[in-house]
Amino acid sequence: LVAVFFMFLLALSLFAIKIYQKQVGKSDKSEIIIDEVLGQLLVLMFIELEFLQFFCAFILFRFFDILKIFPANIIDKKYSNHYGVIFDDIIAAIQAIIVIFIFKSNYGKFF
Predict the structure, then answer these.
(1) Burial of 110 per CB tally in 10 Å (0-12, 13-18, 19+)
(2) 21: closest CA among 70, 65, 86?
(3) Among the four 14, 37, 47, 106, which has the fewest Cβ within 10 Å?
(4) Which pLDDT tens digit goes with each residue over 42-89?
(5) Is the distance from CB of 100 to CB of 46 less than 8 angstroms?
């Protein structure tokens, strides 16, 4: 059910950002935050909702989102349209999920 909600929100966000960028004439600006919400939601789908796991998952996502490690840096620089706004955060979320899976496979759980 969460995955269906995520896909719906992703499609709606792509549509809304495209319209916003046409009307305002801006690319990825700080007032567009739905990409952060989508990235964090994607990460939260892979953890148990305990405070420590939630906190660490949030920090991991922000870490990858701020640093924009390859390939997120390419998406961020090359695409300023609605796809670029969303998908650099999706990539950051996937990178955080990979770290979570590494923890889970080595320690049995993520924190």
Answers:
(1) buried
(2) 86
(3) 106
(4) 999 999 888 999 999 999 999 999 999 999 889 888 887 888 889 999
(5) yes
